[in-house]
Design brief:
Blueprint lengths: L4 E4 L4 E3 L4 E5 L5 E5 H5 L4 E3 L6 E5 L10 H41 L1
Protein name: Diphthamide biosynthesis protein 3
Organism: Dacryopinax primogenitus (strain DJM 731) (Brown rot fungus)
Pfam family, one: Zn_ribbon_CSL
Length: about 110
């Protein structure tokens, strides 16, 4: 694959709103690459308006922890799911106890 250019990450601009590094393309648009892409070892940024491609020069170790955010979110979601399951179980037990109590009261009458 032929690259239009090789650009060091330090020469790119971080766009906090979009969550990407960008670099101007000669066509007037800009090359973009996210921190997550860099963490996944991707070093190619493509211009969305033309066919140009650049290679990003960066230190993978600076971005390797970026992928951990997704794992933390998944763990938190799993914990919330477990908490919801526990709450549903407790609610079911409580309804069963109430139902059992009311049936016992009816049986006494």
């Amino acid at each position: 694959m032929g690259f239009y250019d090789e650009i060091e990450i330090e020469d790119m601009i971080w766009d906090d709103a979009k969550g990407v590094f960008h670099y101007p393309c000669p066509c007037g648009d800009r090359f973009e690459i996210s921190r997550k892409q860099l963490a996944n070892g991707e070093d190619i940024a493509v211009c969305p308006s033309c066919s140009l491609v650049i290679r990003i020069i960066y230190d993978y170790l600076d971005f390797e922890d970026e992928g951990d955010d997704d794992e933390e979110v998944k763990e938190e979601e799993a914990e919330e799911s477990d908490d919801n399951a526990d709450e549903k179980f407790e609610d079911a037990v409580e309804r069963l106890e109430v139902d059992l109590t009311s049936r016992m009261a009816e049986a006494r009458v």
